[in-house]
User: Fold this.
Amino acid sequence: MFVIEVPYINLDQIYNSGQIFSWIKLRDSKYVIPFKNKVLKIEQQRDRFDLTKCRLIMSCSEDDFYDIWFHYFDMETDYGDINFKAKRIGEEMSICASRGCGVRIINQDLFEMIITFCLATATNIPRIKYMVQSIQEEFGIKHVQHMREAGKVTWYEFPTPEAILNDVNKLDSCKLGFRKDVISGICQDITDGWLDLDLLKSMPYLEARDYLMQFNGIGLKVADCICLYGLHHLEAFPIDTHIDEILRTKYDCDDYNTFREWHLHFLTGYEGVIQQYMFYNEINQPMEVGINGIGGQY
Assistant:
């Protein structure tokens, strides 16, 4: 077990921010997190008087935390400074940054994010989670572990492109619809060397986005999601139906370039964090507001 105090992190907010589809929720503030061939049981304890403070209790050694999970949770980035600057944008953004002050951009596996966000078109978050889980269960390596206080936990590694192509017809049971051909095509492009993941990792943001958009099933929004969540280009700013409406109705901006010029000039390089504050606030409205945002069009 390893325990550490970390500011500006909230597992529940991250889980509900639209970037996480493979965490196993045990209850509020307690999760099992699969990552490649590793798994972490983690629990947070919030400060009753300061919501920016958090105590993390993890089922790993100190060495494993600094070797794996420190980077996974993006501990290198000063989210306190980003949050402070975001609140200066104006009243509306101050609300978003306050409500989502624990959201971080997690360093997830690149191939997993490519497949995940190719699935995340014209659908909703519960459906995306179902499809991701189906692919993991059909093609991934199964693990069963007994964890203290959690009991027996079953989790799956996210499969490789080769594992999917080895029995591609099993994609039918994942009920992907039109996305089946997109997923099999992406896997084939990777194994054939057309979509070079190592090369992609070496590219700057705009070059990586343009490169991704050469492949079937990857448009601008999906490419930006992959850049933000799979390549950790924090300047990427995915625009879906939620964000597009927010820009127009709450900031009077017809396009993202105007919004960035007017409001984000002192947050260059961290625009994706601002997008997450906006998205989290939109799909997790307070209950009394009466807006059923969760599960809306992604």
Summary: DSSP finds 14 helices and seven strands in the chain. The first strand starts at residue 2 and ends at 7. Confidence is low (pLDDT under 50) at residues 288-298.
